[in-house]
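Below: protein 1.
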Amino acid sequence: MLKRLTDIVLALCALLVFAIPMAIVAIAVKLTSEGPALYWSDRVGQNGKPFRMPKFRSMRIDTPLLPTHMLTGGGSYLTPIGDLLRRSSVDELPQIWCVFKGEMSVVGPRPALTSQHDLLALRQAEGINCFRPGLTGWAQINGRDSLSIPEKVMLEAEYRDRQSIGFDLLIIWRTVLKVLRADGISH
């Protein structure tokens, strides 16, 4: 209950603080590439419930529907400002709305694509699916794109075992540092 209340307060504050920057980014995406400003992807949420998660579109509209790490020559699909959006993690800002709505949390395992069957199966086996997916998480700050799926799930299981408000605050703090340094981003 306290975690959900914290999520609502943080999401509301973030929506207020980032409203104008998000509007500017949306305009920049529209001006620099064909297609909508937001990209909506089908994700798996808490207890396997599907939901639609927005991101600022950093890839061209003709990009194959694959996880980024599986794209051959993924960088060639980036929009003119896509690399900047990803390296700064600005592309993730629209997900604050999902936190406010209760589909996501500020901290938790990153939401899997519905096509990531191997990740979903390992999460199910480890009892990770009971968590609301997060904007950031323990696996995110310990490797992000460089982690294998088993390593990611191992870190998510560690989060499951250590979860607390204090641990969440540590993860948020380390996320801010990672974002400022653009650590662990491969695409």
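Below: protein 2.
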Amino acid sequence: MSTWEQRVEQFWAEVDLDDREGALAGMRALVDERDEDDAVAVAEWGGIHDSLGLEDEAIPLYRRALALGLDPERRVQVTIQLASSLRNVGALDEAVALLAEAPDVPALGGARRAFLALALHSAGRPDEGLREALLALADTLPRYQRSVRGYADALVEPS
């Protein structure tokens, strides 16, 4: 991890999201150290907007970061963040599609499925959402994995 990435991690650990202007200025200073076409910096700039509830500003930044190219893990992370922002602004079908198509990344655990569950619920598909949440949870259970997966699948199987 580069020194810049360590400073970004430190920023996220310490940022006061109640201080909107300070948070934006802090991330802007970090982003300005990078090339304007640095996909990771663009994604981080989107992330602070997203974290401050500025989804309309975050969405094009996330899209740009994805178009510029990211490593596979960060690509999924930014896809999750983009889909979450889309869900928050009511673009439910696109959010569901992005999350359904994204691969699972071990470093992110069940994050993709958790956000897919939220998007499905918001899209009026609560049984599918609950299924995704249960499937994400099943992987963490020391026992009953098969049972939970079976019950999860039964939520969306025709009777």
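The chain has one domain: 3-124.
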